[in-house]
Amino acid sequence: TTMKTKDQEFTKIIKLLSGGDGSDHFSPSQLNLPIPKWMINYLCCTQQMRRKSIANYKMHFGNLTNNTAQRMLAKYLFVGDKKIEIKNRDRQDIFGDELDQINNQEIRDEKDKWSREAMVDFAKPCIDQTLKAVKEIFGTQPLQSERYVSHNPKDLFIDILGRIDYESMDKLAEMKSKPPYVRTGKKGYSISTQKLPEHPDDNHISQVAFYYCATKKKPYLFYVNDNGYVIFDNTHEKLQLDYLEYVYEKMVNKAKTIQRLLLISEGKAEEMAKYVEPPDTNHPYYYKDLTEEQQAITKQLWG
After folding, report:
1. Residue 153: what are its φ and ψ, rounded to 5°?
2. How many other C-beta atoms are found inside a 10 Å radius of the C-beta of residue 185?
3. Helices (DSSP H) in the chain: which residue ranges?
4. Which of 217, 287, 290, 297 would be 172's cystine partner, CB 3.0–4.6 Å?
């Protein structure tokens, strides 16, 4: 069939995505997932079902440090497609507000409760390090945070969409925090600093690759913990522009694979599951936090 008729078929299929709520985009973090996990999350589950996965303290730690730093540094913050000029830069206020939002969210278990309280003392110095890293990258350039950018590669029927952490006229930066480790020992829980990476993580590189290809701004990736930061730029082989373009092309190819699978299965998950190898449930993190609903879906699709 021609592209035109496929496009029409796909218009029907996108209404079936996200558990029947429909979806009109891919994102870099979606495309980093193994295809079975993408199916569970973005074909079978609605957004409401996805939100039932209780975030652990590590996710909260990242939000607490980055959101606070963004609100202290950026001239503009995007909330959806609304561009807001930030007026209140009082660190205490912002930190308190971000912490309240976290504390209103459900806790996983005893360990998570302990971790969430203990992480606060690590988040404060981590924010200091984030402020320094952003300053080192951007100097005094005015910044904006959380802007949505989209890109529509040829032959892909829906856009790829993502939000940029920090951005100036000619540069962009993706921030990743390294939350402290919490361990369970004989005397209860203990918490310690997680060290900074020596090399960038490939999943993070693919996010940066997308932002670069969508904006053509000079890309940076930086990691932060409570006592330091490390910045990766084009002096690292994985942040060289031709490498980022190659990584982005791989991401687009994966999106096209998903698109083809959706077309041949007409967007029906049971049908699509026949073409996709079953999830590796022993994976260290992809399938560890499936909700009961998601476990049932997995069982239904792959037995």
Report:
1. -65, 150
2. 7
3. 3-13, 28-31, 35-38, 47-50, 57-73, 91-103, 110-118, 120-138, 202-215, 241-264, 269-273, 292-302
4. 217
The position carrying tokens 């687009």 is 252
Residue 196 token pair? 């900074």
Q: If you search the block for the tokens 């698109």, which residue do you land on?
A: 259
Supply the pTM of this predicted model: 0.94
What residue has token string 């499936």? 290
